[in-house]
Amino acid sequence: MVNTNLTQREREIVRLLAEDRGIPVSKMSEQLGVSAVTIRSDLNNLAKKGVVVRTRGGAAPAFHPHVVERQNLRVEEKNRIAQAAADLVNDGDTIMIEAGTTTSLIAKYLLGKSFVNIVTNSSLILPFARLNPGIHLTVVGGQFRPATESFVGPIALQELERFHVRLAFVGTDGFSMGGGLTTHLVEGAEIVRKMAERSGNTILVADSSKFGKLGFVRVLPVQGVKSLITDRELPNTAEAQLIEAGVEVIRV
Predict the structure, then answer these.
(1) Which helix (H) or strand (E) holds 218?
(2) Which CATH class is domain 73-251?
(3) Are 1 and 62 spatial neighbours (Cβ–Cβ below 8 Å)?
(4) Which CATH class is domain 3-70?
(5) How far apart are CA 194 and CA 198, in angstroms?
(6) H helices of the chain, where?
(7) Long-range contacts of 110-113 (CB under 8 A, 24+ apart)
(8) Per residue in 141-157, pLDDT tens?
(9) Backbone phi, then psi, for 196, in 5-degree steps?
């Protein structure tokens, strides 16, 4: 879903639909303070963008509610981080992008670059790839997980083994000096470890709210990434600790 290309009212409509898939147009109209005609027009536009699926009398999100929820968190920070990550990519580059709401936005900011080969397990990248002739996209197969819009499992790992790239961009559910990079899903951890193994350098893209949080599964030590791209709210003490551990910190 290209939530970052939506108007504020469109984002509110998507949020309402994620909270209540059966919400009628009349109730959305009342809550947002606009006419039912305006809501129906917005729903039609959202359907054209692939964000919702029109139903009789309303619409339903085209993505899992967990994805919708995460995409609406810290939108500005995620876009700045993704743009900074895209700035590290050169024409003719080879990169991997792990599934995630921040990582997927990197493809959005590759417009204007040429012959960028992307290997990914994320279906969220597809809308950006369709619009950018400079992207050569390879999506690995595997078991599809709607809650993360990702392909995981043995097939995905086997296909990633076939590639070697200059940079791998990965996300995390939480990271800390002692706990390293962590996630809530074992299958997601396997993908990140494989991408790190098959790349020259691994770049962590994560907003500052992830620092100090611990997920269920340990993925990598912080020393396993070359750089962290985050926002300006990362505490100075955390930045100093990361730099001491050999991690380049880019705050945007």
Answers:
(1) strand 217-220
(2) alpha beta
(3) yes
(4) mainly alpha
(5) 6
(6) 8-19, 25-32, 36-48, 65-71, 75-86, 126-131, 154-160, 186-197, 236-244
(7) 110/86, 110/134, 110/135, 113/86, 113/89
(8) 999 998 899 999 999 99
(9) -60, -40
Give the tens place of pLDDT for each residue, 61-86. 777 767 767 776 788 999 999 999 99
Instruction: Report helix, strand or coil for 142.
Output: coil
Q: Which residue type is seen at 17?
A: L
The count of C-alpha atoms lying within 13 angstroms of the C-alpha of 209, restricted to the half-sphere facing its C-beta, is 9
Supply the DSSP symbol for 20.
Answer: -
Tokens of 154: 């043995």
What is the tens place of the pLDDT at every residue in 157-177? 999 999 999 999 999 999 999
User: Can you give the residue ranges of every domain in the chain?
Assistant: 3-70, 73-251
Percent of the chain with pLDDT over 90: 74
Q: Which amino acid is at 216?
A: F
Q: Which two tokens stand for residue 130?
A: 């369709």
Residue at 75: amino acid letter: V
DSSP 8-state symbol, 122: B
Whole-angstrom distance, CA of residue 246 vs CA of residue 156: 30
